[in-house]
User: Fold this.
Amino acid sequence: MSRTNVVGDALAQLSFLVYGTLERLAAEHGLSIPQARLLGILRDRTPTMIELAKLLSLDKSSITGLVSRAERRGLVKRTPSATDRRSTTVRLTRNGRALVSRAATQFETQVSAFLDCLQPSERGHLTNLASRILAAHASSRDIDLFPATRPDAPHR
Amino acid sequence: MSRTNVVGDALAQLSFLVYGTLERLAAEHGLSIPQARLLGILRDRTPTMIELAKLLSLDKSSITGLVSRAERRGLVKRTPSATDRRSTTVRLTRNGRALVSRAATQFETQVSAFLDCLQPSERGHLTNLASRILAAHASSRDIDLFPATRPDAPHR
DNA sequence: TATTGTTATACTCTATAACTATA
DNA sequence: TATAGTTATAGAGTATAACAATA
Assistant:
């Protein structure tokens, strides 16, 4: 990271700080980053295996193992699709939801802790800037950030 | 990562975006994230295996394989320590240095591209906020993917 | 024929424990 | 004894290719 790329450098380092925080926190709950991401996605979605593959940018064969390991631990559950007998939907169990809720709360606490050096209004501004970067990127890739608010997302 | 965890959600997703960018970019060069981190560290250091373990927060036994795979590809080289016959120092080869330099340049370009959706003044504000967070934690964590390099110190 | 999901396979990455060589 | 490094082993995570069941 050179001096000529101050913005990119700061963004990258901030991202690594947050990523590392999430990684350590997930580990305290016996979760890897992929497992934590899976549970995080399932908090407000009930996707099929294929949809999970797209959301996580992984091959469908990788999803099989990821979901199976989570299922073996009782954190998620496979359910046959009602409309397509080829499809399987994945959802959190009660235990899985409790775990991801605890972890998310702690994560929020830790992130807030290292935002202590900012004023409340600055924290809001940071959230706003981050959200806009994400929105711009998501729209450029046709990814659905808030599926619950979209009634009928057409598939490509 | 629910909607109520606004700050944590936005920062977590932003970190996945940046991390994923590095992952894809590294993959284009045939590198994994751990391999990229290894090469990044070696850009301005010639550590022993034990020192690498500390820098990467990995067990020494993990370093053995990491370095061996990089060495097999001709990217790094093991050299016996001159002062301690138990020790091995690791350094980049010419090819390894060329590879990590190309990758780092591309990474900077892509991260900068995320910021195109912001106004220049907003980019400045983001830099300010991120830098202050990082400064408050400068000593707490060493993610160190591509360590901030001095202006243009010549490598030997 | 196309899509959904799993299986078989191979590789990287990681840690723990046991080991060798050197200090 | 203590430290540096490797090896043996086990498991998670990932992709590719081949496959079965369903659309």
The radius of gyration of chain B is 18 Å. The first helix of chain B runs from residue 6 to 28. The CA atoms of residues 46 and 91 of chain B lie 5 Å apart. Strands of chain B lie at 76-80, 88-92.
